[in-house]
Amino acid sequence: MAYGGPSSPTASAFAREPYPARTRHAYALTLSCDDEPGLVAAVTGTLARHGGNILEAQQFDDLDSGRFFMRVLFELGQGAGVQDLIRDFPQTVAARHMHWRIRARSERRRVMILASAQNHCLADLLYRYRVGEMNMEVVGVLSNHPRDALDIPLIGDIPFHHLPIEPGQRDRQEARMMRLIEDAGTELVVLARYMQILSDGFAAQLEGRCINIHHSFLPGFKGARPYHQAYDRGVKMIGATAHYVTADLDEGPIIIQEVEPISHADTPDELVRKGRDIERRVLARAVRHHLDDRILLNGRKTVVF
Amino acid sequence: MAYGGPSSPTASAFAREPYPARTRHAYALTLSCDDEPGLVAAVTGTLARHGGNILEAQQFDDLDSGRFFMRVLFELGQGAGVQDLIRDFPQTVAARHMHWRIRARSERRRVMILASAQNHCLADLLYRYRVGEMNMEVVGVLSNHPRDALDIPLIGDIPFHHLPIEPGQRDRQEARMMRLIEDAGTELVVLARYMQILSDGFAAQLEGRCINIHHSFLPGFKGARPYHQAYDRGVKMIGATAHYVTADLDEGPIIIQEVEPISHADTPDELVRKGRDIERRVLARAVRHHLDDRILLNGRKTVVF
Amino acid sequence: MAYGGPSSPTASAFAREPYPARTRHAYALTLSCDDEPGLVAAVTGTLARHGGNILEAQQFDDLDSGRFFMRVLFELGQGAGVQDLIRDFPQTVAARHMHWRIRARSERRRVMILASAQNHCLADLLYRYRVGEMNMEVVGVLSNHPRDALDIPLIGDIPFHHLPIEPGQRDRQEARMMRLIEDAGTELVVLARYMQILSDGFAAQLEGRCINIHHSFLPGFKGARPYHQAYDRGVKMIGATAHYVTADLDEGPIIIQEVEPISHADTPDELVRKGRDIERRVLARAVRHHLDDRILLNGRKTVVF
Amino acid sequence: MAYGGPSSPTASAFAREPYPARTRHAYALTLSCDDEPGLVAAVTGTLARHGGNILEAQQFDDLDSGRFFMRVLFELGQGAGVQDLIRDFPQTVAARHMHWRIRARSERRRVMILASAQNHCLADLLYRYRVGEMNMEVVGVLSNHPRDALDIPLIGDIPFHHLPIEPGQRDRQEARMMRLIEDAGTELVVLARYMQILSDGFAAQLEGRCINIHHSFLPGFKGARPYHQAYDRGVKMIGATAHYVTADLDEGPIIIQEVEPISHADTPDELVRKGRDIERRVLARAVRHHLDDRILLNGRKTVVF
What we know:
The structure is a homotetramer.
Chain A: E1 26-34, H1 39-49, E2 52-62, E3 67-76, H2 82-92, E4 99-104, E5 109-115, H3 120-130, E6 136-143, H4 147-150, E7 160-162, H5 170-183, E8 188-192, H6 200-205, E9 210-214, H7 226-233, E10 237-244, E11 254-261, H8 268-291, E12 295-298, E13 301-304
Helix pairs in contact in A: 1-2, 3-8, 7-8
């Protein structure tokens, strides 16, 4: 009787997976701008002239806002240089209010994770990081609790910053946090159940590069203790929401939401436990989509390709 | 090449299914009361003395409210009389604030459906009724639109009542509705997207026997045009909620909720279309659970066995 | 207390929805071919030169098969003629083994539905058709049962063909079916739980334009009575699969699959009932995706944009 | 701007949660036997006479097999002794082929986990164990790989057994495994993606106390490399199945199944990655249900209350 096939060799399970063949010399282009005819032709014509071959692409035109969104995964041949493409791009594609970026798929983005005593999202992200599932470099873990209290062996040699909360010192603490974030060259901040007050200014500085997990199916149960709110209301499903952080609490652009059924027999403690599973899954998917250049901001909303 | 097995004989597909063998002479007992030790023993002892055999049962003790809930499906042997059981029951089982009911599983409850121009829930319920999927007798369809406007051939010979809305005449109209409901011996009223104002008094009179479908995942997007609210907020899932009607708008005890994923490409019209599928599924399940004696009221919540 | 917003006017709920504004003068281009660099640029360049504006598009490159797939929704301006575009297209875009099609979004495809005694999928498709949810023209309903037996009032004035199965006459019956299908100008055949033997030749003739619903989560429980198989095996979920019909039974390219949880308490009859809901939902989605030009064949598989 | 409520105190997040108040002095009774009238009355009467108060209970009568199943959570008052109840039980409740057990809810069952190089299920179970989510004592981790290769810091001081596979030595290795399992007083063996051949005899010895996770939605894709099979077939969902191990490969009684949608763009590697999430979730739920006395064997099937 066999369970599954032959076992893989005894190499460390934490060794980074070699990047799959199909993404060697591969790049992601993301672009948003005011819509006008001919955009896709201009972009893909430029790619073609530089020897690019498209692997996967999506385009979307928001008729409400008049904004156009595009994501292209493409490969460049051996001799072709991405720097030439990047230099030529703005001359060949011109549209109003255009944001664009070309990024090598092999590039790992620099991520700082903020966590509090609820450590399940932190533990989950670090496990996925260690097995090579997330295309990122964790440049630091920051918490208002000491490292021993978090008790996550997977932190290993990742720089750990303990910034305890002191009454009346929020501004000073946030200034130190921002310095740590910037000094580490952080490209994405992940609030992995970081249960602390952030000022509007701090949130604004991180706009579009800070993802939070809210432990409810927004817009239901905003604010504190959402699982207890859900229990009191007697809903039959609970959920979690990953969104970009904005100055407006629980109102940032939503990336992903998921739910699970519950029953009358679930106590608030059981909702909290079930919620942990949803939260860590939703947060990991949102971070992964961000690292995969799948999310484009569209005002208060997101386009997720 | 065959698709599926041999076809069933050419009898009308609308013929009522013969009630399955396992529920012949079967009964459902539902009971809620203040919790005290020995309740299950007292109830099941009484059933056993009357020759009852339990097919399926659930019990739940809400430690918050101190209320106990029980549902028992049981069979009685050939000679045994359910009337004896019903007569003896209150003498052998006594608890504070006890509500109980014993109902033959073969009994079809009398249901009145209220509908407006959005007819998908009405059409769905009537289809399920016609194929024998719902253990009910539809005693009437009531609408503020004329029958021709609803345009549902499945209404057939079911009594149809057209009560147009006239400004300033709500009290009079509701009095007529209530008379129709009562005259038909209605045991359950279903608001199948009946988009009209109901007074608090009307709602209160139907407490525990009137199910509504709300086209959002409550408590998110209460009130009007929830799909447009969802579109504006940029959520990534939409849902529907079936609940008992109370005087408190969109706050009645929730029976069932379901959701489906949506994307940035879904227009409000597409949300409305996708929502129709969720609504009719959720409403049918809630009505079915009610007819199946699976739902017990627990204050502002429900116990769904 | 209001349930939902103000009711819509008393126009017939079955009136066809006016086609939404965003798809006026809109077209869908679908294309598959052997992959080569520059394809997207060539296609979108051609569209741009003919005044096309892209609303939504997807591209996918299957690295295994070396095939490239593309779907573009685009609008043409007032003066622009789609006939010019269609004439120029093959000259400006050339690739090996290319299949392409440009279709007006307002065009309703001609659909023939085949049904047996299990009429839930037929009833569901016709309801969706009547409320304007499916962009199709039902040109006929064909059954081995007489119309009275099917008992679906929604058939209304749609041509109904009764072709009873006679032993040893399959070839003759299939020839008659094919003639009816072709005479009606049928573009898509839907097997809405049509539980009859089809010959390999018949299936081959309809390749890529005949959708079947199989009442299991393939590849589990192929063949007859899948719900009874599921019950006997004690699985905890049941499902349905919509796929294109091929000569190879239950092996055609899969379009959509969905499942629902079940429990030990579900009898085979209850599985059949729950399955009806899944089947009709899955079949409707698959047909809708086909009508929406979202599905491209990729050998034994599908690309669903 | 606050995310969530106030943070919890800086105690170690790995400290075991104090067992919630509602389960103090609480017990679980599970029972299966041939059905006969009066069983529930006899059982609950016995509980009542011993001062038991029922918190939650379910009963189910399988009309096919004629077997009756029951699970009761109950509390005993201060003075009441569970030993008296256990002693009296067989005298007051007698039925044919009866299996029954009364277990303190606070009792942690002894669990041995077997793992191979795919360590995600092991890592997940250990995390849940460390945060007090699983009511178990992990008495050992056993692998055919050395501890360094598994590289799971959470193993900590749990006894680790490395039993490398040597060709032609399976019998000897299994004998050593069984001795380790028995010596540790193991009550449940969990195959957390343990990808090795087990003999029929070994499987038979662990019947009803060994849970495996199969990385497909059984009965689809039995055997090796199910994600590659799924990719080749072009299915639109993948899943995982937790089941009790029997001598019959991939045919043991199913406990839980779950699925997730996939698309044409998912490579086999991506299916493997997505599958890891489903596998660890499904396995954890199955183990949790087992520890919670929710699963009763019913021949080749399970009853899951």
